[in-house]
Design a protein that fits this description.
Blueprint lengths: L2 H11 L18 E5 L2 E4 L4 E4 L2 H4 L8 H13 L11 H13 L4 E7 L2 H18 L7 E5 L8 H5 L4 H4 L10 E3 L13 H19 L3 E6 L3 E2 L5 E2 L2 H14 L2 E5 L23 E4 L11 E6 H5 L21 H17 L1 H15 L9 E7 L2 E6 L15 H11 L2 E2 L6 E4 L7 H18 L3
Parallel strand pairs: 3-15, 5-6, 5-7, 7-10, 10-11
Antiparallel strand pairs: 1-2, 2-3, 4-12, 8-9, 11-12, 13-14, 14-16
Helix pairs in contact: 3-11, 4-11, 8-9, 12-14, 13-14
This protein binds 4'-deoxy-4'-aminopyridoxal-5'-phosphate.
The site of 4'-deoxy-4'-aminopyridoxal-5'-phosphate has 14 residues, from helix 5.
């Protein structure tokens, strides 16, 4: 079988996510035969370095022997059992370990099977908590501009990326959207810290005005990934956590994309030394193997649902594959690798390599900013450097870099005009340098430089 056969069969039957299918009249559909470490290989032996970890999920490479073994062992024991009324060792061990490694106070794990569902759980739990507490006026959420929390209707509603949201607006609940701390917008000469602190004033004002009707504030700690990898300073989270406590409003930390070491610490919240009321995790949770997500919360919130059945306070939310044992065993293998290999510390060298390998792009006439938080590095292509004037989105400059990457053995799927690296942690310094070279040439080409 060749690439061509699979392409045709695919296009006859599959509808792909986040894609205008007509693009594939020109853009090649790439059938992947196997994965190994950072590499994906097609049916003709072409290899692509997975620079974006297959949508930010893969942590330790494709076909990692340690994760493979864990799943294989579990497969022979128990593939799945419903989690209502039943339990199993992988879900118990995983919950114990997640409670131990997440910020203090997050003592209860509620599982689902994808990131959006974990967000839905947090939103519903927060609302329901206030209802169980007699605070029925609390029915709304505060979110940040440029945020993203998933595609299901509730998660989409609390996001703010027009590209994904606008069409569905008539179907969505209305959050209170506060201008966020995206440091790309800071004034020349202003530090990210100062800007984040300054932008926090909008949040304080919104809480002053709306706290009585608000269940929770939801944020992506430190990096708004789907919103073009925009970044902000931990000081914002510190101020926000303090304000949520003062105003009697929950804080939901959506660490679905940034959790598991992406920002340089195991969880982004650690950099602000805060503990949210809810933390949503998915993606890296299973090292990119299986769909699993978890919403962690506090004993206080758990106890507010704990009562006689007839009081009707229970959280009657479920998904068929909640807490799937195979997913949990992949997650346990993931946590074991983090501990045994001292991954967070080892990654420092890779972070530094990403920084130095892209340093020259800071002076590129069509790069508005090269920004980095831990293992996430983003390059913003602009029409005009000093005003940061963006290229019109219709020009699809990022897509040209994507094509260039594919032709040169790199998977660099962009976000609009932003090219970014968010690689598996098994990438080598040499591979980072070669990725930077491919990206540089792609950017030169896409910006007619
Ligand atoms: N929250 C954030 C911060 C995300 O980046 C994503 C996925 N990109 C989601 C939620 C949704 O996760 P999923 O795609 O698994 O539904």
């Amino acid at each position: 079988m060749s690439n061509q056969t699979y392409k045709q069969r695919d296009l006859n039957a599959v509808w792909h996510p986040c894609s205008q299918m007509k693009d594939h009249e020109q853009l090649p559909m790439i059938p992947i035969r196997r994965g190994q470490g950072v590499w994906l290989e097609d049916f003709e032996g072409n290899r692509y370095l997975d620079a974006i970890s297959s949508w930010w999920v893969n942590l330790f490479g494709h076909a990692n022997p340690r994760v493979n073994d864990a799943i294989k062992q579990q497969l022979d024991e128990l593939e799945h059992v419903m989690l209502a009324g039943f339990t199993h060792e992988p879900v118990i061990k995983l919950s114990e370990q997640l409670v131990a490694i997440t910020p203090a106070g997050l003592n209860r794990c509620f599982y689902a099977d994808n990131g959006s569902s974990a967000v839905e759980v947090a939103l519903k739990m927060s609302f329901h908590y206030w209802r169980n507490s007699g605070k029925e006026s609390k029915t709304r959420f505060i979110n940040l501009s440029n945020s993203y929390h998933g595609e299901t209707l509730g998660a989409l509603a609390v996001g703010d990326v027009a590209l994904y949201k606008e069409t569905y607006e008539p179907l969505l609940m209305q959050p209170i959207t506060v201008p966020g701390p995206d440091c790309y917008q800071r004034e020349a000469g202003e530090s990210c810290h100062a800007y984040s602190q300054r932008m926090y004033e909008h949040m304080e004002a919104a809480l002053n005005e709306h706290a009585e009707e608000v269940c929770a504030v939801i944020v992506e700690p430190l990096v708004q990934c789907a919103g073009n990898m925009r970044m902000y300073d931990p000081v914002y989270l510190k101020l926000l956590k303090d304000a949520c406590e003062r105003h009697g409003v929950h804080l939901i930390a959506d660490e679905i994309a940034v959790g598991f070491g992406r920002t340089g610490t195991m969880f982004a919240c650690e950099q602000a030394a805060i503990s949210p009321d809810f933390m949503c995790l998915s993606k890296g949770l299973t090292a990119g193997y299986l769909p699993l997500s978890v919403t962690l919360t506090t004993d206080n919130i758990y106890e507010c649902f704990y009562d006689d059945y007839t009081t009707q306070k229970a959280f009657l939310h479920s998904h068929s594959y909640t807490g799937n044992p195979l997913g949990c065993s992949a997650a346990l293998a993931t946590l074991k690798i983090f501990a045994e290999d001292n991954v967070i510390k080892q990654n420092k060298r890779l972070e530094e390599e990403m920084r130095t390998a892209t340093m020259h792009l800071r002076d590129h006439p069509h790069v508005g900013e090269v920004r980095q938080t831990g293992m996430i590095l983003a390059i913003e292509m602009v029409k005009e450097k000093y005003s940061k004037q963006a290229y019109p989105w219709e020009e699809r400059r990022g897509l040209q870099v994507y094509r260039h990457g594919l032709n040169n053995g790199a998977l660099l799927r962009p976000l609009g005009n932003v090219i970014y690296f968010m690689p598996p942690y098994v990438i080598t310094p040499q591979q980072i340098r070669s990725l930077a070279e491919i990206a540089t040439k792609g950017i030169d080409h896409a910006t007619d430089y």
